[in-house]
Design brief:
Elements (H helix, E strand, L loop, with lengths): L8 H28 L8 H7 L5 H12 L12 H17 L6 H9 L2 E7 L6 H33 L2 H14 L7 H18 L2 H13 L4 E7 L2 H34 L21
Amino acid sequence: MDEKFYPNTRQSFVLIIFFYASYIIYFTLIGFLLLQFNLIPRNYFKTVLFAGSSISLLPLIIFFSKKSGVPLQWHVKFPGIKIILLMLFLSIAVRIVSSPFDSPAEYFDNLFNWKLKLLVFGVADIDLNMAIHAISSVLIGPIFEEYFFRKQVLGQLLQRLSPFVAILISSALFAAGHWRIDDLGSLFIWGIFYGIVYYKTKSVETSILLHSFSNLLNFFYEYKFQTINETKLIPYITLEVASIAVILLIINNIIQKHKINREFQKEVPEENLNEEIYKESPNK
């Protein structure tokens, strides 16, 4: 293995240890400070503690940048309306298709008892706890997680491995990093889609957008188990098939856009490659 490549096998183990240690230190230190000095009411303690957990990735991001030699540079380009809509529809479709992998044991246990796990959209009651959680999971978490798992980890893996293997590895790390055993399957699937979007668009902003939409959806649906019958089974299968079709169409659209950009790469400056997607000003 090339010693200049970061991270190699030994360094990867160090990163994994650092990753989990940063979370443990964060929860221990911040939890102690919040309780010791009564900084917040007790009924908001858990929400506030978890709301800031993504920030614990910051030391790891800085450490990764220093060790890999890749500077912490990010020239933000805001996605255009087309990409925003595509990522919104993609997040809804993936949520529908991946629903069996949210607590799969519960899903298959009910399936064997002739009950379907149906995704029901609606608006949850909003309180301060939910508002804090929404700000964290929709606005803060995706930025830190996508920068680390996609821009840094996946970006480095793509230099050494095939896109297929690199995306699988980064998705596995992403899933394992959430400490939720029941959701490992769905987190892994989401990691794959975040990885595909980042790899094909070369844009961490787009993967952040998809990540934000996927987290936002958590506040607008719930699962209900209902007895399988013809009136529910046919719409269920139709919705799943339609969602798969939407996913394939959107991914194909992204791939075709990537091919067009690559064809013009030698003629157009790099910062203008995605001018159809990213527009600095509507007047330009």
